[in-house]
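Continuing from the previous page of notes. For each protein in this section, the sequence appears first, followed by its structure tokens. Read the first protein now.
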Amino acid sequence: KSLRERWGWVKQSIVEQFVNNCIICALRKLSFHPLVAKPIIAKNFLSRIQMDLIDLSFDPDEEFKYVCHVRDHFTRFSWARALTSKRPIEVASFLFDLFHSIGLSPTILQSDNGKEFVAQVIKELIELWPSVTIINGWPRHPQSQGLVERANGILEQKLDK
């Protein structure tokens, strides 16, 4: 039998009253509270940079399998370097060369929780620049690493061509 034939006589108001008073329905009811993203405000060049590794090991270019991508939050300017591996020494070498060539160090360096960014070598870089604050976000989490994650997609598209 169709649903209408079997239960068509029950008024909608009775169904609503039943659902509103049903304990099982109340327990199953999901409450949805969207997270309100707190905007990141950068006040000047290198006040906050976000960094991430792009894994290109599925389609390497000779010995290069990764790209370290660093993005300034204020200017939206990006720097990238191809890496042969994601060993901490390679990532740290890129960061050292980058900030040494600019002549400034960032105030805040934000990365995901990848081991290549929280390793001892990165901590040694902080010893060179004691004013740098490290902030670790969630890996592949656009709410915490949104700027660099979006730019990663663009960079990957450009590298594909």
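Done with the first. The second protein uses the same format. Note its length before scrolling.
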Amino acid sequence: MVKKIIDMFKGRRLAAPLVNLEHKDMFRLAMEHSAIGMALISPDGTWLKVNKAICDILGYSEKELLKIDFQSITHPEDLQTDLTFLKQILAGDIQTYNMEKRYFHKSGRLIWAKLTVSLVRDKAQHPLYFISQIQDITLQKKASVDLLQDKQEMEEFAYRLTHDLRSPLSSMGYLMKMITQQISNGDLQSALKTVQTSHDGLSKLSDLVSGVLDVSKVKLQEESSQPIDVSVIVCETLAALSNMENFERLDIETRFEYIGTINTQPYKFTQIIDNFISNAIKYQDTGKANSFIRVLTYKLNQEFVLEVQDNGLGIDEVYRKKLFQMFERFHPAASVGTGLGLYMVKKSADLIGAKLVYAVPDNGEGSIFRVTLPLDNIPALTLPDSEIKTSQQFVQ
């Protein structure tokens, strides 16, 4: 807290000169070089003097801030608490107060701040101005919220995983006893069937463990952003997935309207593409004669967009709120799955700063999954005919 503030005001506005140049210089230097935001605010809430740090925090120039009051950029849910404290300090009930509050940045985003306020009075104890100190704690708040969310997710993850592991492991023990008994009785045909059932169960268990490892890798693997060519990753992914069941009956088309590189974390972005495309393959509608997958890239409002569209089974509206939650399975009859794929997609998107959108095609059939990333003003190039590919080019 600056101890020697000599700015003297007439009434409630900054008007009177400083008592002496020495104190004026001390105050000016303290304000200008403070690492935290500092401001003098009139009793009516008008900004009287602000330093560079507070301008940087809020995104306004000094000139812009001096034209408004703090109420206009305070989050409505925090304003009443702030005003209550101000009323108490004006009444002399308290000398100072601290609170965490939200400001609206000039760009519109929310800023979390730690606010400390005290009041300067004249010799007659009339209020002159408030001294406010503001520290940006947005990152700390986000880290705290993320930590709590991760804790809750891990607790749920452990509970659900324990349940999903216990059941097949118990079944394996029972099936092993059955096989032993069947062999002892000379019933080899039944034993072979039970072995196959055991094999299927172990395969599902293996898929679950692999899914858990993939989720852990996405969360824990440190990865730096680098330029990647999404068109190359899409083509490589389609080729790698060409051995999936019923791949050959799909009409697959890619259209890369955005050509060039984007800066992102390769492993996490590849996981998103892989899940979108593999889900479109797994959950195709085999009852349709013409099943298709379309993979598009384009630029929209300074954002890169990758879109995977199909005319498959789609996702019923009642399940869409659970779309990216862990262990959610929407078409168990078509493919058992682990219920971790789209959860991993969401985690990957969060970590790379991408947005996910699920939409239904205009005809109401199938699904559209989109992932968008901000671009650094990289212009999209004109699409040549050579960049349109069909399914025959992806089969290895």
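What the second structure shows: The radius of gyration is 31 Å. Residues 239 and 394 are 5 Å apart (CA to CA). We return to this in next week's lecture.
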